[in-house]
Design a protein that fits this description.
Layout lengths: L7 E4 L5 H12 L3 E6 L4 H9 L3 E6 L5 H15 L4 E4 L14 H29 L2 E6 L13 H21 L4 E8 L14 H9 L8 H12 L10 E4 L7
Parallel strand pairs: 1-2, 1-4, 2-3, 4-5, 5-6, 6-7
């Protein structure tokens, strides 16, 4: 089903993992996709094109206000509009509070939180004029829980994304743009590589009521729903794709 036929989407952090899966899913639903990342998105873009979809890639530092303006302009120039923004780019950290330097804290906030503010601001005019504006901000289960009692910068950033989403959703509720957050649990992507087969992976699986890691495609399916008109009365909401973690 081509729920996004004729729509244009910007997806950050799209070189791999949830971002790449989201780019593939939105393209399969009919959207023209601009995939951005600090690393090359050529692999996922070429795959989309081989599958008959429409996609372009752009190198993009989401901390840069200037680069955000360039990304939006490219979408307008190449695809003629902008309907969907997926703020997926982010980085994690594992240190406890006492071992987190100010520089590390601020770096995580800039990439994971401030980028969402910059992205929504840069895309605001185009989204409002599209007639089908939808923003999906990728938060986390750790944006609404204390997790393992570590990673203070990551928790702060993802928690801020959750509430920033609600604030902008209220502002834009009658301006034609829906704004929602999606909250993945423990997802089987390359970020898991350092802990595969370890006690940490066992802990993650053990804390997930469904007893397994999630798949990037399962998160992408949630993004596709929120981006589509099937979610036309959904704004300011949180969608948890976490195997039941937050229900505990």
């Amino acid at each position: 089903m081509k729920r996004l036929q004729g729509r244009v989407a910007i997806i950050t952090g799209a070189a791999g993992g949830i971002g790449a899966a989201t780019a593939s899913r939105l393209a399969a639903e009919g959207a023209a996709v601009l995939a951005t990342d600090i690393a090359s998105c050529d692999v996922i873009v070429e795959q989309i094109q081989r599958d008959g979809g429409t996609a372009l890639s752009m190198l993009h530092d989401v901390r840069s206000e200037v680069q955000w303006n360039d990304v939006v302009q490219l979408a307008l120039d190449e695809f003629g509009g902008l309907h969907i923004l997926v703020n997926n780019a982010g980085v994690g950290d594992r240190a406890i509070l006492e071992e987190t330097s100010l520089a590390d804290y601020e770096a995580t906030i800039a990439i994971t939180q401030t980028s969402v503010f910059l992205g929504m601001r840069a895309c605001a005019e185009a989204l409002k004029s599209s007639g089908h504006g939808s923003v999906i901000n990728v938060s986390s289960i750790f944006g609404a829980s204390g997790g393992f009692g570590a990673s203070p910068a990551y928790h702060s950033a993802k928690g801020a994304v959750r509430l920033l989403t609600k604030s902008v959703a209220l502002e834009w509720a009658q301006q034609g743009v829906r704004v929602n957050s999606i909250h993945p649990g423990f997802i089987d992507t390359a970020i898991m590589d350092p802990v595969r087969g370890s006690a940490v992976e066992d802990l993650m699986v053990g804390m997930t009521p469904m007893g397994r890691l999630g798949l990037a495609g399962e998160v992408a399916a949630g993004v596709a729903y929120l981006a589509s008109d099937d979610a036309s009365f959904v704004t300011g909401s949180e969608l948890y794709v976490d195997g039941g973690y937050m229900a505990r």
